[in-house]
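Aim 2, interim progress: modelling of the iron/sulfur cluster-bound target.
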Amino acid sequence: MKVRVDPELCIACGACVSLVPEVYDWDDDGKAVAVEDEVPVEMEDEVKESIEDCPTDAIAEV
Ligand code: SF4
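Predicted structure of the complex, ligand included:
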């Protein structure tokens, strides 16, 4: 799976970056950004959790 953060929706709460720092980081505008690579299989459950936990539904599987 791959994920993408919509910067228009991200409110920079930090939940995803805290939960899966291997996949999410901050961009220069202070919004979360996801790695463009395929999510490692062992992290898929946490990434799915991060999608569900995002308060603004800014994270989507692509
Ligand atoms: S959980 Fe959602 S709103 Fe919070 S930093 Fe991540 S993408 Fe942005």
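The pocket of iron/sulfur cluster is lined by residues 5, 10-17, 32, 54-56, 58-59 (CB under 6 Å). The chain has a mean pLDDT of 97.
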